[in-house]
Each structure stands twice: as C-alpha cells, then as structure tokens.
Amino acid sequence: MGALAADSRAHADQDDTVLVALVAGGDAGALEELYRRHSPWLFARLMRRCNDSEVVTDVVQDTFVTLWKDARRFRGTGEVAAWLWGIAFRRMVSRLRSRKDVLLLPEWEAGQTPAAEDEVLLGVEYGDLAGALRRLSPEFRSVVQAVVLDGLTTKEAGRLLGVRENTVKTRLHRAKAQLRGSLVDTQEA
C-alpha cells in the first residue's frame, strides 16, 4: 500500500501533458491521476447536455478508455483538458445522435432564481433561438455549439470537429447569417 500511495503522490505533482505521455507508455497510475483531475468537470459539463446520468457516466468512462488507447495521439499542443473535452463531446454526440429525450432542464428549488447564465442557456435551448438552431445543418449547429456555447476558439473547435480552422470560421459565419434570418422570420410571424 505504501508504494501505491507514493506512486499516487508522485503523479499528483505531474503536469497533465507529462501524465498523458506516461499513459502513452502504459502507466496506469498516470491515467488514474488524469481521471481524478478531469472526470468531475467532464461529468458536470456533459450533464448540461444530457439528462441521463448513466449515459454521461458511460461517456466519461469511454473518454478515459480512449485516452488509455490513444494517448500517443496527443500532440502536446493545447490543453489536455480541451483534448479530453473533444473526446468526450464526440462520444456524447455519437451516443445521442438518435435520441431526442436527453435535454436537461435545470431544477431550481422553490423560490430560487436561476442565475443569469442559466436563463440565457434556457433561452438558447428552449426559446426562439432553439428552433433556429435546430433548423441549422448539423455541421453549422456543431460549430455554433463549440464556439459560441462552449467557448472554444476556432482552432480548438476545428480540432474537436475534425475540420480546418478556416472551415470553422466559414461555417460559423454562415450559421450566424442563417440564425439571423430565422430569428427575423420568427419575429415577423
């Protein structure tokens, strides 16, 4: 037990990039440390997208299985957290492609007012903008989700979506134009 605890402490002091390199070399302790650091926020962030905690738990597990198998693919550019989010997001999209029952409405206690950010997100998910977003092509919608809602840079979104950064910029520009048109049509109706 003493060796395991010492190994755990040694990994706790390591940078994420170093830990990924250790995972690529087959170090299970490094994988455990990355899981300890990143699984809680991945779970919380994915729960904002899916109301099924079993699916989210499976996606988080799949993310770390992928990390174990593909750690050598990490190029060392960018943040490990962004790379893990990209893996998790793609896993979630794959799982939910055919499901329509997975939106999560935040539950506030009686009398509690939602935070301004939650109100905006509810408007995005359930208001006029939600309908306009649903009318976008999947390619445009995923770019808006990644850049606008998730706050990724166009470079990070490109990496996440598997397209060039300029493609992200073009799709975002076109998506915004379509959204403006849809929202104007909604207001005139």
Secondary-structure element order, as H and E? HHHHHHHHHH
Q: Classify the helix fraction into a percent range.
A: over 70%
How much strand? under 5%
The low-pLDDT segments are: 1-5, 102-112, 114-126
Mean pLDDT across every amino acid position: 77
Give the N-terminus to C-terminus distance in angstroms: 69 Å
Radius of gyration from the alpha-carbon trace, in angstroms: 19 Å
Helix count from the secondary structure assignment? 10
Characterize the largest beta sheet: strand count, sense, and whether it forms a barrel: none
**SS content category:** mainly alpha
**Quantity of strands, as a count:** 0
Q: What is the molecular shape?
A: elongated
Short précis:
The chain is mostly helical and 189 residues long. It has helices at residues 2-12, 16-24, 28-47, 53-70, 80-96, 116-126, 128-135, 138-149, 154-161, 165-188.
What does this 3D model show about the protein?
The chain is an all-alpha fold. 73% of the residues lie in helices and 0% in strands. It has 10 helices and no strands. Helix 1 crosses helix 3. The protein is elongated, with a radius of gyration of 19 Å.
Describe how the helices and strands are arranged.
Layout: H1 2-12, H2 16-24, H3 28-47, H4 53-70, H5 80-96, H6 116-126, H7 128-135, H8 138-149, H9 154-161, H10 165-188
Helix pairs in contact: 1-3, 2-3, 3-4, 4-5, 5-9, 6-7, 7-10, 8-9, 8-10, 9-10
Features of this protein?
10 helices; mainly alpha; 189 residues; disordered N terminus
